[in-house]
């Protein structure tokens, strides 16, 4: 895969972006199902997905939060269009709200969400330590962040676990508590989730 096309997965645009969105929808279904399972969404939760892409996980989150609300931000207008179309019924019912936005400046009030999910996009976050604190800002105390990643370009499974270990350290440094992880032995490379809870001591 060329670097130029790989970059489309960070901010899909134009015809190549449409192809990237189609590939994400085709290849990430199992990963998104597993990711949503890790987050343990409850029926009344207010949930945020960062970088929702074509909107597969949004569907699953809305089924779990059947008495709550699912919101999402993505930097790609094309992905907002695709995900809105895929979740049209829930958008119309007011249970899903999707918009253009960046993890660095989340357009939400403090302590808005019980759960936050990011699947296969943390590698595109501009400043990881600052962005983790921005996510903590919109989490309610005790709320959970789940970052899921399957680094398909990694040279080996050991490299994937090294990325996981670094993220665990970053979450702890940002002040999250009960930081933990799980691994899914997918192909061609394993996927992992790192989870952390917002401490009440975070400002």
Spell out the key features of this protein.
203 residues, alpha/beta, seven-stranded mixed sheet, 24% strand, globular, disordered N terminus
Structure description:
With 203 residues, this protein is of the alpha/beta class. It has 8 helices and 7 strands. The chain has helices spanning 3-7, 14-27, 29-39, 56-64, 77-86, 88-92, 128-138, 157-173, and strands at residues 46-50, 69-74, 96-100, 113-119, 139-149, 177-184, 191-197. A 7-stranded mixed β-sheet has the order 3-2-1-4-5-7-6, with helices on both faces. The longest helix has 17 residues, at 157-173. It is globular, with a radius of gyration of 16 Å.
The first-to-last residue Cα distance is: 42 Å
Q: How many β strands by DSSP?
A: 7
How large is the share of residues in beta strands? 15-25%
The quaternary organization reads as single chain
Order of strands in the sheet with most strands: 3-2-1-4-5-7-6
Mean pLDDT: 88
Overall geometry comes to globular
Biggest sheet record = 7 strands, mixed
């Amino acid at each position: 895969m060329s670097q130029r096309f790989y970059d489309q997965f960070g901010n899909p645009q134009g015809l190549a972006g449409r192809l990237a969105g189609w590939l994400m929808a085709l290849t990430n279904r199992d990963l998104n199902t597993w990711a949503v399972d890790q987050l343990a969404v409850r029926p009344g939760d207010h949930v945020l997905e960062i970088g929702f892409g074509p909107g597969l996980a949004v569907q699953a989150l809305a089924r779990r939060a059947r008495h709550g609300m699912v919101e999402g931000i993505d930097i790609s207008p094309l992905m907002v269009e695709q995900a809105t179309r895929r979740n049209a019924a829930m958008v119309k019912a007011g249970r899903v709200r999707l918009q253009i936005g960046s993890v660095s400046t989340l357009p939400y009030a403090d302590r808005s969400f019980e759960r936050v999910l990011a699947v296969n996009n943390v590698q595109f976050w501009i400043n990881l330590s600052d962005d983790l604190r921005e996510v903590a800002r919109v989490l309610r105390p005790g709320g959970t962040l789940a970052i899921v990643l399957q680094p398909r370009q990694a040279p080996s499974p050991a490299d994937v676990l090294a990325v996981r270990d670094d993220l665990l350290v970053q979450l702890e440094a940002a002040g999250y508590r009960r930081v933990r992880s799980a691994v899914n032995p997918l192909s061609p490379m394993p996927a992992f989730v790192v989870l952390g809870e917002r401490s009440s001591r975070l400002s």
